[in-house]
Amino acid sequence: MNPDFSFILQATDGTARKGEIRTPRGVVRTPAFMPVGTAATVKAMFAHDVRAAGADIILGNVYHLMLRPGAERIARLGGLHHFMRWSYPILTDSGGFQVMSLSKLRKLNEEGVTFQSHIDGSKHHLTPERSMEIQDLLGADIQMQFDECVRLPCSEEEAARAMRLSLRWAERSRKAFRDTPGRGVFGIVQGGASKPLRIESAKMLANMDFHGLAVGGLAVGEPQEVMLDMLDVTLPHLPTHKPRYLMGVGTPDDIMKAVARGIDMFDCVMPTRAGRHGLAYTRFGPLNMKNARHAEDANPLDPESDCPATSNYSRAYLHHLVKAGEILGMMLLTQVNVAYYQFLMNGLRNAIHAGNLDNFIAQTREGWERGKA
Amino acid sequence: MNPDFSFILQATDGTARKGEIRTPRGVVRTPAFMPVGTAATVKAMFAHDVRAAGADIILGNVYHLMLRPGAERIARLGGLHHFMRWSYPILTDSGGFQVMSLSKLRKLNEEGVTFQSHIDGSKHHLTPERSMEIQDLLGADIQMQFDECVRLPCSEEEAARAMRLSLRWAERSRKAFRDTPGRGVFGIVQGGASKPLRIESAKMLANMDFHGLAVGGLAVGEPQEVMLDMLDVTLPHLPTHKPRYLMGVGTPDDIMKAVARGIDMFDCVMPTRAGRHGLAYTRFGPLNMKNARHAEDANPLDPESDCPATSNYSRAYLHHLVKAGEILGMMLLTQVNVAYYQFLMNGLRNAIHAGNLDNFIAQTREGWERGKA
Questions:
Q1: A123 touches chain B (CB under 8 A)
Q2: ipTM entry
Q3: Which residue in A93, A141, A264, A302 is the catalytic one?
Q4: How far from the centroid of its chain's Cα atoms is residue A210's Cα?
Q5: Can you give the pTM of this predicted structure?
């Protein structure tokens, strides 16, 4: 293993865990939420504001970056951190999920995937080796194995085939990962909505030399219950001394439930995307700022928030900006949401440390209920 | 006149002037450029970044604000400064220009203008009295008379009719202006592209009790030469002890030429609009960031700029953001452009103070030429 990349488990509360991933670029306090920086930008936010909102780490997308501006170009320009002026840890996904969700005309075989760009229709090829090469060119601190992600629902056969292919790709990815000091690579548990397949995948990956393990292929349309069932069967088979990352999840409620089960890391476009569409995440639950009830409300979203976008602007002003389609509205609400997600993670970490996670979760829910009243 | 609102002429260089407009909300160093904050936001910029870019004053639009969110609503919410979290001076236009350029189905008579909103087709009425009432509700530090602005080219008769109507509206506006301590009201010279009409308008307005005088109805499609001709005939008839504001102008070149002739204030959507469309104003002239020649350029736009957006990000990154349609690209380039305009104004003020304006203008032009090479 890599001595400059480590995971320290600091406290547990039931199955929930608090810890730190330590890298040369900085510490990632877990449970951690990673704002998504798809195309070398957390959309509508300055990198320094992402940091100020409390984020220790962000996520970059191999699929988007390989298509535009290109991994070799970013490498020539000094790597992704320097390119986007974010000097803290970055995790990159492997491209597998976006190839499934965004690209056109996919052709998949044992070797890898050929697909057409959703931007210009150009043809591209991804293999475990090329995905790891791209992530190395980008300079990601945490790199993900290349996997095949299937949409849910899908047949047991299809889920089994994709899971086993992903296991073979996991071995190839691990081998292709360049063991640069301070960088880690994670394997990804697949298996659709099948408990036996998830267990098989988890057991196999647990025995490989990964720095952390992810649960993938969830948050792809299934009910929350299915997602939680999959976590319940998977997590007991993952080693406790490695960080566990639930990919693409989720709502604040999803996150609290997954943290209680022992997940350490999350990413999701929800806070940023919702911010561009007029939704504000707060201690009082999500608020639709388009709603006319905010039009004359001089109160900020939350006067007690440390986030200036949350505490310094009136709801009336945010309502006006959203109604008028102003970019500043997207900027402020994105900041509000990224800060709220970090606030929630901080609360979860403190609660695990103090051994009162259940209480914290109950209180958080009460706040959301008060917001509805 | 209003003792809390004053204009101090500090230096001249030929016909060019350096001075200060002093208001309780802050000093406006002239020649000044006012970023346009149309709908209670300088588009794609945080108010604190507008200030950090060097702006002493911004402009708000009566037309936009009366339609959405409404002047009375803004007043109930504490006025425009508080609403948009900008505590420094604000100038509001009177609505006359946008009624001409944006609204549909106008009906104009001696009393005022009836028009349809470009947003929802709703019917609205503006008179000099209502325009001044709105500007008072907004709490603008500098308010503009209500005027009729005609498109160029137009007939001498049409220009004369609109100019004389604007003079009668000037008297009504001055009378309707609430003489709140610290606030001023400006008259607007009209007269289309006719020298005699411009002179007539200027002479009449010079004798009214305004705190400043504007030259309106230019930058509406005429060649730069026509605009400069109008300034040459108009400015000698305006009192030297009042600030002079050239409305809606313009390019850096327009501004330098107008400053040399004795203009003290400007506003224009150019820096902000151009920033949202991939154009960067710099010491090396305007740069189209969509251009492929920036794709691998690791240099910032200008390493010597005080503006972080100008000095801290590579041209390659800005190019990428613009090509990908990322909001951060608009945010950064808007900041670049607002900062460049303020940098230019600061240079003009220093040059007038030092008595070497011609030299400064020549050097500025040389920089633009170098950028083309």
A1: no
A2: 0.98
A3: A93
A4: 18
A5: 0.98
